Amino acid sequence: MRCSYIRLLVNDYEACFHFYADLLKLPVLWGDESSRYAEFDVGSPTKLAINQREVMAEALETDTADPELPHQDRLAVVFEAEDVDATTEQLVAAGARQVMEPRDWTAWGVRAAHFRDPDGYLLEINHPLIPLED
After folding, report:
1. Taking the CA atoms of the chain, what radius of gyration do you get in angstroms?
2. Is residue 17 classed exposed, middle or buried when 0-12, 13-18 and 19+ CB atoms within 10 A define those classes?
């Protein structure tokens, strides 16, 4: 596995998009001020992404909880794996706490599974559904 993204789950997507794109002047790899998801080049193989917080809450079915509570995710560390299902089996067998079983997230373009580390941080293991060109 390799760390492919650090994904910030933000409340004010538009303001955050402008912060990273306009103030920090990070090149935008994907998305715009209204897409609710964007990726930025940070000069390394790992990318920085921002995601409207509610989008991830809906995906993980935590959207009915109070968004101000600490259990609403603010950060996701994303690892790309060659085989999401096999990696998931290995992690579960080793005792990792699984949040969501592997499934195709066609709107996101990935097959992904979600876990929590011992401190509760969200981890995503994914692989592109359609191979991306380098």
Report:
1. 15
2. buried
Residue type, 41: D
pTM for this predicted structure: 0.70
Number of neighbours of residue 127 by Cβ within 10 angstroms: 19
- For residue 28 the two structure tokens come to 């935008």
Report how far residue 27's alpha carbon sits from residue 47's, in angstroms, rounded to the nearest whole number.
Answer: 11
Whole-Å CA distances, 2 to 28, 46, 47, 80, 103: 21, 9, 12, 6, 19
H/E element, 18? helix 13-18
Whether the CB-CB separation of 40 and 20 falls below 8 Å is answered with: yes
Q: In this predicted model, which residue has the larger pLDDT, 20 or 59?
A: 20
